[in-house]
């Protein structure tokens, strides 16, 4: 896996490079947003490790610019560990959020999650032998092209947002708990990844496909249980 490290701490960069390359990854590091944008195009990474504090710059600005043009998986690595910081990072499109100091073993485990997700995103694995196109009224989800169209308009999704929507839509009306979604979509566990990750990604998907995210038509919140996708064209009474 090609991993781009964006951190203005030379010692942290060296440590990450050593650990990642010992695991067989190819790395490249940079210390500012301009260099990181160039490296994203030239190095063509599979994953970015992004620090929020980049000297006088803010890594979240880079995150915003990235999400306008690509769905490159991003893990925030930062000393800011407040719950609201984590929530805001996920809302901006980050795939995960790690607070310094963190265990390199845990970081490697989370990177492995991204690797497995990339493998499962191949056309064969994604379709699982079933129809590659899921059509529900004016909503179409193509699991090979990884495109979502609503009323004929292409809707942009990050990698994880698409994986979550496609997984739910493949089993309409089946209820999945947050823990099950972490396992199947993130290939993770609530034991080391907060299930608020699921909640935030559901919110982001709803913002993109629902006319009124407060009264969702497609993704239901089944209180105290989890979420389900509705194949009908009207909202279920259980939506919340």
Task: Note the topology.
Blueprint: E1 2-6, H1 10-22, E2 26-30, H2 33-42, E3 47-51, E4 53-54, E5 57-58, H3 59-69, E6 74-78, H4 83-91, E7 96-99, H5 104-120, H6 123-127, E8 133-136, E9 139-142, E10 147-150, E11 153-155, H7 159-169, H8 178-185, H9 196-209, E12 219-222, E13 226-229
Parallel strand pairs: 1-2, 1-3, 3-6, 6-7
Antiparallel strand pairs: 4-5, 8-9, 9-10, 10-11, 12-13
Helix pairs in contact: 7-9
Unreliable residue runs: 121-130, 233-240
**What is the number of beta strands?**
13
CATH topology of the largest domain: Rossmann fold
Name the CATH homologous superfamily of the largest domain: Response regulator
Structural class: alpha/beta
Radius of gyration: 18 Å
Strand count, sense and barrel status of the largest sheet are: 5 strands, parallel
What is the overall silhouette?
globular
N/C terminus separation:
40 Å
Describe the fold and architecture.
It is a single chain. This protein has 240 residues and is an alpha/beta fold. It folds into two domains: 118 residues, Response regulator (Rossmann fold), CATH 3.40.50.2300; 107 residues, Arc Repressor Mutant, subunit A. It is built from nine helices and 13 strands. It has a five-stranded parallel β-sheet with strand order 2-1-3-6-7, sandwiched between helices. The chain has a four-stranded antiparallel β-sheet with strand order 8-9-10-11, with helices on one face. Helix 7 packs across helix 9. It is globular, with a radius of gyration of 18 Å. It starts with a strand and ends in an 11-residue tail after the last strand.
